[in-house]
Design goal:
three-stranded antiparallel beta sheet, 7 strands, Phe_SMUG2-like, Uracil-DNA_glycosylase-like_sf, Uracil-DNA_glycosylase-like, Uracil-DNA glycosylase-like domain-containing protein
Length: 232
C-alpha cells in the first residue's frame, strides 16, 4: 500500500507544463531541471510523510527560486533543509525569508514532525515562473501577475489541484497563503469546482517578513489559532 510519501513524490515527478507562455516568462520546474531538488525532496517526504495519516492542504502561490526551486519542498530553503529538517543539501546555501518565517511558526506549533504529520504545503500553481528584467537578471514571477499568464496556466492549475486532492488530503478545509490575489483566485476557482468546503486564508509569509516583521509573532499566533480548527 502506498504512503503519502510515495504519492507526493510521484506527483512531483509527473509535473510538466506543455502549454505556451507569454513572451519573456519562463517556467521553473525544479523536478525536471534540478536533480538535487528531486533527490532532496524525496528524502524529505520519505522522512516526514511515510505514512497515511489524515492531513490538510496548505496552498501557497507558486514555487520561488530560493525555496522549493532549490529543494523541491515548499517554503523550505537549503538552510532550513539542513539545519531544521536534518537532511543534507550538497549544493549552494540560500536563505528565503518566507522559509525562515514558516519554520519559526512550525517550531511554535510543536516541531517539524508534529506539523508535517498534520499538514502538507504546496502551491495553487505547483510550478514557478521567472521573468528577465532589463539588466538580464531573472526574478520570481507569480501566476497572477499577468492576465495572459493566468489564462495560459489555468487548465494546468485546475488539473493539479485535483491531482493533489487525489493524493488523499482532507477537503473540509484548505488553507491559503496569501490574502490578496491568491485568495481571490482560489476562492473563485473553488466556487466553480467545489474542491473544498471551506478556505481559510492567511497572510503570505513573504508579506509578513517584508512588511510586518516587527509583529510576526502576532501572525504566528494567528496561524496557530486557525490551524487549531483542524488539529487535535
Amino acid at each position: 500500500m502506498s504512503t503519502f510519501a510515495d504519492r507526493i513524490i510521484a506527483f512531483n515527478q509527473q509535473l510538466e507544463f506543455t502549454g505556451s507562455l507569454p513572451p519573456g516568462i519562463r517556467i521553473m520546474n525544479p523536478f525536471k531541471e534540478n536533480e538535487l531538488a528531486l533527490a532532496v525532496s524525496t528524502q524529505f517526504y520519505r522522512k516526514y510523510y511515510n505514512d497515511d495519516h489524515p492531513r490538510h492542504l496548505i496552498l501557497g502561490i507558486n514555487p520561488g527560486r530560493f525555496g522549493s526551486g532549490m529543494t523541491g519542498v515548499s517554503f523550505t530553503d537549503p538552510k532550513r533543509m539542513v539545519n531544521q529538517c536534518q537532511i543534507p543539501y550538497p549544493g549552494p546555501m540560500a536563505h528565503e525569508p518566507s522559509s525562515e518565517y514558516i519554520y519559526e511558526m512550525i517550531d511554535s506549533f510543536g516541531g517539524i514532525t508534529k506539523f508535517y504529520n498534520q499538514f502538507y504545503i504546496h502551491s495553487v500553481c505547483p510550478l514557478g515562473f521567472t521573468i528577465s528584467r532589463g539588466n538580464g537578471k531573472e526574478v520570481n514571477y507569480n501566476y497572477y501577475d499577468m492576465p495572459e499568464l493566468q489564462e495560459a496556466v489555468y487548465p494546468f492549475i485546475v488539473e493539479n489541484i485535483k491531482k493533489q486532492i487525489d493524493l488523499g488530503f482532507e477537503t473540509d478545509i484548505c488553507f491559503c497563503f496569501g490574502t490578496g490575489k491568491n485568495e481571490a483566485f482560489l476562492r473563485k476557482l473553488n466556487m466553480k469546482n467545489e474542491f473544498f468546503k471551506k478556505i481559510i486564508a492567511l497572510e503570505h509569509p513573504r508579506f509578513i517578513m517584508q512588511y510586518k516583521s516587527k509583529t510576526k509573532q502576532d501572525y504566528i499566533a494567528k496561524y496557530l489559532q486557525e490551524f487549531s480548527k483542524v488539529t487535535l
